[in-house]
Amino acid sequence: MTRAALVVFLAALIAGGASAAASEGRPAPGRHAAELCVATAAAEASCGPAQVELRRDGAVRVRIDDLVYRLQLHSSQVDVVLMHGSVQVDEFIVPYEWAGRSLQFVDENRHVRYELRFAKRGANEQGR
């Protein structure tokens, strides 16, 4: 196989893998309808609707009424800042993971689990 053919083959393989991963998990950048679920060690998860904006730079804005979670996704950790209007309510940095179309992270210090569940693809994705 020539070098040019190898490059084309590898590019096709990578593109196919990336396409499959995108269809199975992380939503595309843009605005999304979602559900944020928060659970503590003492209580089951409480879930409610959220408006989410995913940006290409890893920034995520999650709005629930007058609360906004400002997330910054890095390779394995997420910076979380909770805002109520112009007042910062909380801030922490924890590991995160994608499980299908859900972003999950845990604040171990407070024993709180978060799961941001994105609606099915196509039902709510806007502004791409």
Keywords:
128 residues; alpha+beta; Lipocalin; eight-stranded antiparallel beta barrel; 8 strands; disordered C terminus
Series of H and E elements: HEEEEEEEE
Largest sheet: 8 strands, antiparallel, barrel
Secondary structure class reads: alpha+beta
Quote the distance from N terminus to C terminus.
Answer: 38 Å
- Main sheet: which strands, in order across? 1-2-3-4-5-6-7-8
* Coarse shape: globular
Stretches where pLDDT falls below 50 for ≥5 residues?
1-23, 123-128
Number of domains: 1
Number of strands: 8
CATH topology: Lipocalin
What would CATH call the architecture?
Answer: Beta Barrel
Helix content: 10-25%
Number of H/I helices: 1
Radius of gyration: 17 Å
Overall pLDDT = 82
CATH class: Mainly Beta
Strand content: over 45%
Walk me through the structure.
It contains one helix and eight strands; from the N terminus they run H-E-E-E-E-E-E-E-E. With 128 residues, it is α+β, with helices and mostly antiparallel strands. The chain has one domain (3-118): Beta Barrel (Lipocalin), CATH 2.40.128. Strands 1-2-3-4-5-6-7-8 form an eight-stranded antiparallel β-barrel. The protein is globular and about 35 Å long. The model is unreliable at 1-23 and 123-128 (pLDDT under 50).
In short:
By secondary structure, the chain is α+β, with helices and mostly antiparallel strands. It is 17% helix and 55% strand.
Which helices and strands occur, and which strands form pairs?
Layout: H1 3-24, E1 30-40, E2 43-54, E3 59-64, E4 67-73, E5 77-84, E6 87-99, E7 102-107, E8 112-118
